[in-house]
Amino acid sequence: MEKPPQKPSQKPQNPCFSSGPCAKRPGWSLEALSGAITGRSHRAGPAKAKLKEAIEKQRKILGIPENYKIGIVPASDTGAFEMALWSLLGARGVDVLAWESFSSGWQSDITGQLKPDNVALHEADYGVLPDLSKVNFENDVVFVWNGTTSGVRVPDGDWIDSGRAGLTLCDATSAVFAYDMPWDKLDVTTWSWQKVLGSEGAHGMIVLSPRAVERLESYTPPWPLPKIFRLTKKGKLIDGIFVGETINTPSMLAVEDCLDALNWVESIGGLDKTIARSAASFNAIENWVGKTDWIDFLGVDPATRSTTSVCLKISDPWFADQDSENQTSFIGEMCKTLDKENAAFDIKGYRDAPPGLRIWCGATVEPSDVEALLPWLEYAFATTKEQQTS
Known about the structure:
Aspartate Aminotransferase, domain 1, Aspartate Aminotransferase, domain 2, 9 helices, about 15% strand
């Protein structure tokens, strides 16, 4: 008779492994927000200075070229990327890459709402990328850098044509601050503060290359644009958006939290350190998966596995024989056990993804907490299987 599973003796100090909103930076407390400009207009000098500071700190840390425009916009990464799609597409054909939930959502918006001419779809199942060699850079190209719901990312920027005629529009919300982004290959890039920075949601970032600005000032899309999406006025870029004059009212508490996160990034050594922290957490999981017979990565190719949104599938033959409903129930029970024990919160795979686990390994997560989590995954799997097979 097999011994009952042994409960681990140590727990992660911070059990927050959600893929968004993500763990706060180490040592965070509400005191970090004490300097927020509250009760003032966001257009007042001190408030606008904070907004501009958030923009310029990100430019410096990320190495964004000086001739690229950086703006703070509404509605997190979703709002920022919708703004890009609605404002820029339609001038030429569009190639859309879709291999997980959010990229499929952009594909749906393009084909079902905007309906520009000459759309080419490059699709793949969860766990793999489309064939990047088939992308036509005469067209605008729409893609996510990091497939947050599948744990699969593009390997680098080498596949993007430096001499492209179209624009590249990149949803990079689970990538920025965790990878060294090739800004010369990216014409429009968006992300949110709630991912690798671990800051508050509701605000998005949009970065425009000079080529993207040229498109905005020379092209008017055929569909109506809501005020919340408008980046130009009378054919010219609204420059105020890119110096802290936001389109709508931002939360100055969220801005203060973003600045706190950026100050933390600077204090630990900048982008190299945030990349290294994510990689260290991922490597811990990779080593564990390599010696554990019941778990595997959802991503097939090691070269394209995300180091931030780490998606796992259960490879145990017993689990594979279960139907999808039972698999989903099993994962739910595992996560309930982990939640009850305060060992891991919010690690159930995304609702549209195959049943599995999703562990956030962005820079604000301590690699030591990931190490401490792994025995708890063993425990939760063993206890859940024991319950369902006894």
